[in-house]
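Escalation from tier 1.

The customer reports that the assembly of four entities below gives different structure tokens on two consecutive runs. Tier 1 could not reproduce it. I'm attaching the input and our single run for tier 2 to review.
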Amino acid sequence: MPHRAAIPRPSLARLPIYYRRLLRHLEQGEGIISSQELGTAAGVPAAQVRKDLSHLGELGRAGVGYETRELALTLEDFMGLAHTKIAVLVGVGNLGRALAAYAGFERYGLRIVALFDHDPEKVGKQIAGKPVFGTDQIAERVQSLGAEMGIITVPAVGAQDVADEMVKAGIDVIWNFAPRALIVPDHVILENEDLAARLATISYHVILRRLET
Amino acid sequence: MPHRAAIPRPSLARLPIYYRRLLRHLEQGEGIISSQELGTAAGVPAAQVRKDLSHLGELGRAGVGYETRELALTLEDFMGLAHTKIAVLVGVGNLGRALAAYAGFERYGLRIVALFDHDPEKVGKQIAGKPVFGTDQIAERVQSLGAEMGIITVPAVGAQDVADEMVKAGIDVIWNFAPRALIVPDHVILENEDLAARLATISYHVILRRLET
DNA sequence: TAGATTGTTAATCGATTAACAATC
DNA sequence: TAGATTGTTAATCGATTAACAATC
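Tier 1 run:
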């Protein structure tokens, strides 16, 4: 069983950026890359890159750099991108639809196998090639499909109920797009993608910029 | 001209969470709220809340707490949520469509006034009640509409060109959803919303969880 | 050997948290 | 007055960065 080290959250968040830079480097036929080049891509100093990568092991060669393909594969393995992750998505509004159809996710091993909505108009249809079920079927389907991840794209009001339902069904990783702080048991990993909240912080910058000029 | 203090990024990111908690508190007719209650909503200790809010001034009363409505208005003002921010969105795919239609943004003062795409099929149509123009018209329309913010939802390949175009047109705040590191001049504020990269970090957690159990 | 670049140590920086005097 | 809660100071924690010996 492969060992996976603990890694600081900010370091983890930079790995996908390095990974993409490596893929592009590989396309260009470059066999070796330096921490300097990776740092430029991520907007951090080379020392930060080396520190980040040091959490995964000794991956480079002093005086030379990192072997492009090897490092890409190591990152891919570390983040588990080659492993299929079975997910369900609840809330087939505009955003839910967009995420269900997003090809970029599949390339990272995410397979959204079922959609749920309480609108009878949508239930029974297919969206982005995936079946839509009623929200009353979440528990049942999660178990029969072996889903381990749940994506919430319902409006704020319904989000906690959906989360509860997912947790009850045994899901232990939730990616929440609803603009609401959810309460989940300790063993459940909750990642919030709160676009309205993000907009609010961007709004601050816009206003600041307006006052400056 | 109102003064806006510098505020650490993590503190700024928590303000919208406090703000939403305040709105709910207000709905429930509660006139006073404590840092303790706000902290619970955001998952941080009360001391963190008080420190965060202290960047905006002395907003509470010792021994009592914060006046709900007053604090909500202060946050709203600080983040500029009541001010209209004119934006354009480039890339009318699934995600672009979803963002263009997202009602939550309007509540925070974002007004997306024009969409752009290079697909002739889409140009000339209306999507979510907003006109779609050809990408060759970005500069012209940004200026005539007075847009100060740009949202990028094109595929990775085209993102840098779109950003360049926006910057040339005078846009100085860019919200980028394309999975690509963009290069912009120093005076431009760039906020990345890289969902594929986020998925990669979540994938790490899923795999870790799998190994644990 | 000279030049380049790694991994790691130590210093720096900045954010979080605990503690408490001041206030209501 | 007793109890509650603020704003702020100081201590703690954790991440970033600079510097450099080790390595190629």
